[in-house]
Write a structure and sequence with these properties.
- This protein is of the alpha+beta class.
- The protein is about 15% helix and about 30% strand.
- Strands 6, 7, 8, 9, 10, 11, 12, 13, 14, 15 and 16 form an eleven-stranded mixed β-sheet that branches.
- Helix 8 links the parallel strand 29 and strand 30.
- It is flat.
Length: about 675
């Protein structure tokens, strides 16, 4: 979207003259001679000609003008974005690949360079088995699902609770190891974002990692615990997003602690070889308040993320001319702005995107990332490098653009640094060319529509639903309402009820936001609320709706199949995420009317008509005289409980249009 370009030159010379002549009677009534021979008309003619020329000049608004206007508003076209790719190594020995290690994608006509994001231990061990202990749900082997490209599994079962565990079996021990855990997220809502604010950290699953000792399971501590105990670094934030798990010091245990030992699980045996032993890692759920279980698409050993780009660490130099506006051109591009290390006569200079706010004594230079040009000051905005001064760029990084989005299965080369075969099972993503001026203007206009200070109900709801890093499906702001005093208007208070997203279609329990989830939203809203406004973020109140209904099917219809379809349809209609007329979830505060249930049921193929209908609910929901279910609070919503469908064959059981029988 672009700003509509105004046409400032919208009047011709003739129109300007005619407009001026029509104003003469208003300002000079005694002036009656309007012929071309009159000197006054000649002056009007001259002024119209000058005005037309000025309008033409003013109408010439160029891209440089628009770019400067954006800069005055604090907006700059985004630099090229760098692609990221996950690289899987197949090592022949154990070693550490350091952060920043260069690797290159070999294309038919060129190389594209990447750098490893973090240190990764490479270990030639194999993940043999993936076992899920779902507690009362039983123990299931998920090895096949982990290796299949189109399947996923819940690592702690679909009914996650304390005591559930994920077991990973390896063929040999290692002091350090790493694997990438890809979560299945195709049916999830995109996590919220709000400008450039950081994601809010919260914890809704508490996990404990352990490895198998000879007699017991040995605790693996979080990475911050220290270097003398087994530690794990969790890049998934407790299985909330895809990321790497990195383990260190598993074999380097104190003398009084058991080392990593191969053993057979007491609760599970390999059906092919019951006596076979493995080296086990297990992840145990200690506590869980997540609204839906994490789901793993695949686990890949020795996999690290690399970012497109390359570090140029050989100096480039130039001699100062002593003239204003000197330009230094770096060899390759595009250049990453904050990576340039610029020195003039040994003094470090600051690199900026422009010199508009620089003074005559500031050691500043500007860079154009796309071309790699460094622009020096003119003495008014930024100091001019002295004549014969030594201008040196010690180091900088290049990268960015769509070219970095290499396809899956690309050939890779790292100059033998890892002594491993490298492949990418998934394509690189995220690379983008520099933002055009029109795109920057469109982004600015979109940002103007986003609320930053929370003033009205819509602002509070937008801020809650777009809390960075959280999947909030719906929020409702109720001013003057507090759940502790629902019958009293509380001035200066806004209650925001939230419903977290869940992909589950059948809800045994409603999706109630956890304390950590609510705390993250509270912190976000607190940054944007107005002074003296008290905000209360609470989970939505869920009403479990029980339904009993009788229907008359059409002839030759299977009653079992029809009853199942009716139950599924009603359950979907009452769903807090996928329900209601618009399939966007049941609105908070919306009562359940019998007429709506009748309408939904009678629209199902195979239903001739419906008869008696009884609604009931918990948590303070009541029935009115017509049998409708009235919710107890404006922050209440519903989900389906028990749905009893009874098929009858007597047509007299059918309700007549507008009839209200069967309310009790």
């Amino acid at each position: 979207m672009t700003i509509p370009k105004p046409d400032l030159e919208d009047k011709t010379f003739e129109q300007l003259v005619e407009e001026a002549r029509t104003l003469i009677p208003q300002y000079a009534p005694i002036w009656t001679d309007h012929n071309w021979s009159d000197p006054g008309i000649t002056l009007i003619d001259l002024q119209a000609w000058i005005t037309e020329a000025e309008l033409y000049r003013i109408n010439l608004v160029t891209d440089s003008h628009r770019r400067k206007y954006l800069q005055l508003l604090g907006v700059h076209p985004a630099a090229p974005k760098r692609a990221k790719v996950d690289l899987t190594f197949i090592p022949i020995d154990s070693r550490i690949v350091k952060k920043g290690t260069p690797v290159s994608a070999i294309l038919p006509d060129k190389k594209i360079f990447f750098e490893i994001d973090d240190d990764i231990p490479l270990t030639p061990i194999t993940l043999m088995k993936v076992i899920v202990d779902g507690g009362s749900g039983g123990i299931v082997d998920r090895t096949v699902e982990n290796e299949a490209a189109d399947l996923f599994f819940a690592p702690f079962s679909l009914r996650i609770r304390a005591g559930c565990a994920l077991y990973l079996a390896f063929d040999s021990p290692a002091d350090s190891l790493s694997f990438k855990c890809y979560l299945y997220e195709k049916d999830l809502k995109t996590p919220g974002s709000h400008n450039d604010e950081q994601e809010y950290a919260f914890e809704d699953i508490v996990l404990r990692w352990e490895y198998s000792g000879a007699n017991d399971w040995i605790r693996i501590y979080p990475a911050k615990a220290g270097d003398t105990v087994p530690i794990v670094s969790d890049g998934t934030r407790n299985f909330r997003k895809s990321g790497c798990f990195t383990f260190h010091n598993i074999g380097m245990t104190p003398p009084d602690v058991e080392s990593w030992t191969a053993k057979a699980l007491s609760s599970w045996q390999d059906p092919e070889d019951p006596a076979r032993t493995f080296y086990w890692l297990r992840c145990v759920v200690e506590d869980c308040s997540a609204v839906f279980p994490p789901r793993i698409e695949m686990i890949r050993m020795n996999t690290a993320t690399a970012t497109e780009g390359s570090t140029i660490d050989f100096p480039e130099s130039q001699t100062g001319t002593g003239l204003p506006g000197q330009i230094m051109k770096l060899t390759p591009g595009p250049v990453i702005q904050n990576s340039v290390e610029l020195f003039v006569n040994g003094k470090r200079w600051e690199i900026r995107c422009d010199l508009d706010s620089s003074g005559p004594e500031d050691y500043h230079a500007a860079i154009i990332p796309e071309t790699g040009e460094i622009l020096f000051g003119d003495g008014f905005r930024g100091i001019v490098p002295p004549a014969d001064s030594i201008i040196r760029v010690e180091k900088y990084r290049i990268g960015g653009g769509e070219a970095g989005n290499v396809r899956a299965g690309t050939q890779w080369y790292d100059d033998g640094r890892s002594m491993a075969e490298i492949n990418n099972l998934r394509p690189a993503a995220g690379g983008a060319d520099a933002e055009t001026l029109s795109e920057a203007i469109g982004r600015f206009l979109d940002d103007l529509r986003k609320p930053y200070p929370a003033v009205n109900n819509a602002d509070f709801e937008y801020l809650a639903e777009n809390t960075p890093g959280l999947r909030v499906w719906k929020a409702r702001a109720v001013p003057g309402y507090h759940p502790r005093n629902p019958g009293i208007t509380t001035e200066g208070t806004v209650t925001i009820a939230v419903i977290p997203f869940t992909p589950l279609l059948h809800l045994e329990e409603p999706p109630i936001a956890s304390y950590g989830f609510l705390s993250a939203i509270t912190r976000h809203i607190d940054r944007h609320r107005l002074l003296c406004t008290r905000c209360c973020v609470v989970p939505a109140m869920f009403i479990r709706v029980e339904i009993r209904i009788s229907v008359v099917p059409l002839s030759r219809i299977s009653t079992d199949g029809l009853e199942r379809r009716i139950r599924e349809t009603i359950e979907e209609y009452l769903h807090p995420i996928r329900g209601w007329i618009d399939h966007q979830g049941w609105p908070m505060g919306q009562n359940v009317y019998r007429s709506e249930i009748y309408r939904v049921v009678e629209a199902i193929d195979g239903v001739r008509c419906s008869g008696r209908l009884l609604l009931s609910g918990n948590n303070g929901a009541i029935r009115d005289r017509e049998g409708n279910l009235i919710l107890p609070a404006p922050i209440a919503t519903v989900y389906a409980g028990s749905i009893s469908v009874h098929t009858v064959t007597e047509a007299r059981e059918c309700r007549k249009k507008g009839e209200t029988h069967g309310t009790g």
